[in-house]
Amino acid sequence: xDVSEPNQSLALPDDARTRDGVATTESAxxxxxxxxxxxxxxxxxxxxxxxxxxxxxxxxxxxxxxRRQERLARLMRPWWVEDPALLARELGSLAGAGFTLIHRGLxxxxxxxxxxxxxxxxxxxxxxxxxxxxxxxxxxSLGPRRVQGYARHGVLRDRPATLxxxxxxxxxxxxxxxxxxxxxxxxxxxxxxxxxxxxxxAFGVASSAQALLPLRxxxxxxxxxxxLASASGPLAAAFPYSLTGLWAxxxxxxxxxxxxxxxxxVEKTLASAHGLSRSAIRRRLTSEVGALHxxxxxxxxxxxFVGRRPDGRPIVMTTVPLARESLGDRAPDARVLASxxxxxxxxxxxxxxxxxxxxxxxxxxFTLYDDDQLYVGNLxxxxxxxxxxxxxxxxxxxxxxxxIAPSVTVRGHAFAVGRHVGAAALLExxxxxxxxxxxxxxxxxxxxxxxxxLGVPAIFAWVSNGVAAARIFRVRPFAxxxxxxxxxxxxxxxxxxxxxxxxxxxxxxxxxxxxxAFASTVAQVTVRTLRGDAVSHxxxxxxxxxxxxxxxxxxxxxxxxxxxCPRCR
Length: 569
Known about the structure:
Low-confidence stretches: 1-25
Distance between the termini: 163 Å
Strand order of the largest sheet: 17-16-15-18-19-20-21-22
Oligomer: single chain
Mean pLDDT: 83
């Protein structure tokens, strides 16, 4: 193949040179060197000017941003980094007091945490973020007993806050551990006592040995002592055992009322008031109760009770205010029923439940009639307990009623109306209403006669075997049919799961669930009668109840009074 010769007009001259792959002439190369030299001189001049006059000035926006970043950095800096001298002083004071630093770190909230020890006891210190500006330091003991103490920086001049908080912890740990146990029921009348007085105090103790009731005290005038005793009197029967103690009136415990500090304060006040040593007070509190009354106006006055177990361990008891009028706040008929007197014949499953409901409704006077004892099998439907087995029903029920409200009084008679005594026994105390729940013919007859003689209403109620049905009827003397009138009229027979013949000693069948529902209906009729409610469709004299569903079905029966009745004519 032929190769053509290059065109002479496109060939480079002999003096041409190449630079960066670009062909140049000698004159073009000289121009380039001159340009580079001038640029280097300009750069050197700018460098000298910068060294003479400093960096170029920032604009206003950049300066503000930089200053904000600097302030934020100072705020985020921990106080022990900002002021290491303060931390060094705190560590120095701890070392001077015999503490050894064993740990330094941060909590989850990034607070400074120090672990220290002295002898066999270990502690933990936690500082607040603003500790140098009056913040708190928390001292806590590490071990089985975790006790805390607080102190604020800069408040105490004689010692650092860390040592003050640790001193609180050591003081609590040095005192014996105080337990809580028992309750003391204090009537509201016991609030008002003279300031600075002291003397002895007598308590009643409940059978459970967990509750006490102040009964009498010395060291005040006779009139005040009698008034306080009368305030506790209505409940005294529920606290049959006795216990003595010492009391004094004094100032309240300053600061936080921890159990440990409260116990030591009561002991100190009793020792000072009675002129005894602390050791003598400690010995007496193993078998007696110490009481401190803090007078602060009638409504704010308070009582504090302490004692010691046989092994010497201190106890702080719980004080329970006891206001007799508080029952009326939850029982709307309490004020009306408080003066009513109800006689109940038959304290079995129905009579027991009705009596308890009446006491909780506000009835304060009861007379009970029943000659039976309480056996273990009765506990399926009665409100007693296994320790009550073998006791008389009237005695056990009387104790229970007297523990329901402060002003309940009960008289119990362990004999059967109709077999042992007649209508004359029911006239005792002139009750406002007679309630017969036995279902026995002789007892019902005598109750009917007593109601007619007293001129007070009587309510008769009983259930059939198996609680299939029940009957309730009320006798309003000489205004409605008496029991004799109802019996002679041939009333409808209530349904029953088998009949129990007279003299049969086998117990009648029936669940406590149905018995309680029936007792509530009987108590409702009794309360409406004591209130004096008029007879109406909602308050009938004669009522039949059919059980079997969740609630009994009621049916009203009208039985007129018999003008030829030998009892009520």
